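REQUEST FORM: STRUCTURE PREDICTION
Request ID: SP-0412
Submitted by: Lab K.M.
Chain count: 1
Length (residues): 110
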Amino acid sequence: MLLRCLLLASIFSALSLPAYAERLTLQLQLNADGFSPKTLTAPPNKAIKIELINNTNKVAELESYDMKFEKIIVPKGKISVYTGPLKVGKYHFFNDYASNVVGIVNVKLP
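STATUS: Completed
RESULT:
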């Protein structure tokens, strides 16, 4: 019985791997003057992972109402947020602790 359970678990794990492997990773940095780059570009209907590095000495919070995520990042830290698949359009994100620090994910056809 245990062998059967392990076999089924490995089969289901292998089936879910391709979906995760297809996730697009976008790199983002937070500097004293804001996000870099300010605009990220992605194709439609693709799951997205945004990796943020905080190069400042302040705590920040990466948040997006459009893409439904929020995550705190410590000074000099690194976080990842997941979203998508997204339709063609512009999706806004911001630092919740500094309202003037904003960026966009521009989802468009290649």
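NOTES: The chain has one helix and nine strands.
Reviewed by: T.R.
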